[in-house]
Specification:
With 215 residues, the protein is of the alpha/beta class. Helix content is 53%, strand content 15%. The protein is built from ten helices and eight strands. The strands form two sheets. A five-stranded parallel sheet has the order 2-3-1-4-8, sandwiched between helices.
């Protein structure tokens, strides 16, 4: 089962990806996580992506499409399926995805669009912290009470504020999303497998809607 999540930054795509990953054994394909890992590993792709990410801009289509093409060709994606989280973000990427899936003989089962208003996104993004190692995301108030034993490394998670979650960059990211990714939402909206979700609902409620649509 292959699923696509589309929505602004901070709309809960990552959180819901974890739910589907656990329940159905799907591979979580987050292009943002892949770029952050590439930056940590100081690969050529990471070095190319970093400046765009720090400014809240999109990484060029060709770089993102090459990354996802390589990833979709790996065997784990053929097992139980995958969740695309944060790709495609431009119409050119959506067209490339369609070609890639056709070439691989794969199809999407559902497309979920996470809707959240701007004020809520700004609030969530500026309050969230991310683990440098496992990419777990938590609101600041939960980071304080987070037990090391629940973390990813023996000493617990290592939470930091992503450069692009800082308040100056957040509005830029939302602007870029509206200009470049809303056309992708329109591109998919007429599809029979398109589902709109209220991403402002509690995470459990959103998971319930997702699972209902997938059953
Ligand atoms: P995310 O973690 O999904 O919010 O992504 C963080 C940043 O990575 C974005 O603001 C972009 O700079 C870059 N990025 C991730 N996915 C894409 C994509 N599909 N197209 C272009 N840039 C991307």
């Amino acid at each position: 089962m292959n699923v696509l999540f589309i929505g602004p930054p901070g709309s809960g795509k990552g959180t819901q990806s974890k739910v589907l990953q656990k329940k159905f054994g799907l591979v979580h394909l987050s292009t943002g996580d892949m770029f952050r890992q590439a930056i940590t590993d100081q690969t050529e792709v990471g070095l190319r992506a970093k400046a765009f990410m720090d400014r809240g801009e999109y990484v060029p289509d060709s770089t993102v499409i090459d990354l996802i093409r390589d990833r979709l060709n790996k065997d784990d994606c053929k097992k139980n399926g995958f969740i695309l989280d944060g790709f495609p973000r431009t119409v050119a990427q959506a067209e490339a995805l369609s070609d890639l899936l056709n070439g691989l003989g794969m199809a999407l089962k559902a497309i979920f669009y996470f809707q959240v208003d701007r004020a809520e996104l700004v609030r969530r993004l500026s309050e969230r912290r991310t683990c440098r190692n496992c990419q777990r995301v938590l609101p600041l108030d939960q980071v304080v009470n987070f037990k090391p034993s629940e973390g990813c490394v023996p000493a617990g998670c290592d939470f930091y504020q992503r450069t692009d979650d800082q308040v100056e960059v957040v509005s830029k990211r939302i602007e870029v999303y509206e200009a470049q990714t809303m056309p992708v939402v329109e591109y998919y909206r007429k599809s029979a497998i398109f589902h709109a979700l209220n991403g402002a609902d509690a995470p459990d409620q959103v998971s319930g809607e997702l699972l209902k649509a997938l059953s």
